[in-house]
Design brief:
Radius of gyration: 33 Å
Number of strands: 3
Largest sheet: 3 strands, mixed
Shape: globular
Length: 408
């Protein structure tokens, strides 16, 4: 906090009815739903070994989403509440913690985006050959790189904000949040704040997710076709080998056979072949079930990743357009509706971005059967079992009382 002897001036009101409804009401509801759903998802994962599988990405993504939603409520709804209702205590607290919470929120958003990219990259590598598997040590290395890159890209936000104190001014004028001296450099503002962050946080993740998703689908289709053909070839080889070891009667034995001895007929051959095919049925069924399970997992993984990419694109497109307009001609945005249109668009962009973190559980539930089964089992253990215990308790209480009275 820097004390300055500047003139006292109260900032113009930033809150109106529309912003209160959009940010405070709708935004808070979305964040609350997101915190509940992501917490439920984390509790559903507690029975799984997430630290040794690729579910670690989804587990960490749910943790980051909860923290991002908490940061959103501390930044945007809180600022509008103290501005609209003139709450001095909230005004002071907001100016004290905003520098730290804003930095943490920016780092977490960048880390969640890079986690999706890292999960897509691992899935692409594993799709090249069915035998390739990522070790937990390598996965932890990737995650460490993700958090390091996010901290490097967005950690500088902490040094771009400056809290100024005006002790001689009355309340609601004695604190001021301003940009620091480093942001007044045109090279820093243009190269780092816009170009580097826009490329590494928006453009590059979009491009990588689309490319990796397309390549993964292509590799999985090739593996599926090759695996199906290898199964057919192996089954044919086994059937040929079985036919080669069948005893074939010689002409001499057929000529010397008595007339009353039962001869080898077509029904006998069909019975032998049917018995051989019956011996191969368990193997064929097992391989068919494994192929169906592999196709199902491929379809679920593809649908899940495609849904995440689509939601990410839709919810961040408005933010990208606003960022581009801010760089090309910021005066145009400021002149629309005396600046209120720009504020409304920025608020809508924030709500859309936070909504992508709040509704990942419905996406997982709809697209992935394994996660859907785990969520249903956890919900059944939490709600249905508890209701059954309550009903059982109500039924057993009178029985216990009557049995006690009989004993007495």
């Amino acid at each position: 906090m820097i004390e300055i002897n500047d003139t006292c001036a109260e900032d113009p009101p930033q809150a109106d009815a529309f912003r209160m409804i959009l940010i405070v009401f709708i935004g808070t509801i979305v964040c609350t739903i997101g915190i509940v759903l992501n917490s439920f998802l984390l509790l559903s994962f507690r029975r799984l070994d997430v630290f040794r599988s690729n579910l670690l990405y989804l587990f960490l993504l749910a943790c980051l989403d909860i923290l991002v939603e908490l940061c959103f409520m501390l930044i945007f709804p809180a600022s509008l509440v103290w501005d609209y209702f003139r709450v001095e205590f909230l005004y002071t607290c907001w100016h004290i913690y905003i520098k730290y919470v804003s930095t943490v929120g920016q780092v977490l958003i960048a880390a969640s985006t890079l986690l999706i990219v890292a999960a897509s990259f691992e899935r692409y590598i594993c799709s090249q050959r069915s035998s390739i598997q990522f070790s937990p040590q390598r996965r932890f290395l990737f995650i460490s790189i993700v958090f390091t890159c996010a901290l490097f890209m967005k950690g500088s936000v902490f040094f771009e904000l400056e809290l100024q104190s005006l002790p001689h001014c009355p309340p609601f004028q004695n604190l001021r949040l301003d940009l620091s001296e480093i942001t007044r450099s045109e090279s820093y503002k243009t190269i780092w704040m816009f170009w580097c962050r826009s490329i590494f946080n928006v453009f590059l993740p979009f491009f990588l997710l689309l490319v990796l998703n397309s390549l993964t689908i292509s590799n999985l289709n090739k593996l599926h076709n090759n695996g199906f053909q290898s199964i057919l070839v192996e089954n044919r080889c086994q059937s040929d080998a079985t036919d080669a070891f069948k005893p074939s009667p010689s002409p001499e034995s057929l000529s010397c056979r008595p007339l009353l001895e039962p001869s080898v007929t077509s029904s006998t051959i069909s019975s032998v072949s049917s018995s051989a095919s019956n011996d191969q049925m368990p193997t064929l069924l097992r391989r068919n079930s494994e192929a169906c399970a592999a196709r199902r997992r491929k379809r679920d993984a593809t649908r899940t990743l495609a849904a995440l990419i689509t939601i990410y694109l839709l919810t961040n497109t408005l933010n990208l357009l606003i960022t581009i307009m801010e760089f090309i001609n910021p005066d145009v945005l400021g002149s629309l509706g005396e600046g209120w249109t720009y504020k409304y668009l920025a608020d809508l962009s924030s709500v859309l971005t936070i909504s992508s973190t709040a509704f990942r559980l419905p996406v997982y539930f709809h697209c992935n059967r394994d996660i859907r089964t785990q969520i249903r089992d956890f919900a059944r253990s939490c709600f249905i079992d508890q209701n059954e215990k309550k009903k059982l308790g109500k039924l057993t209480m009178p029985i216990t009382a009557s049995s006690t009275e009989s004993v007495l």
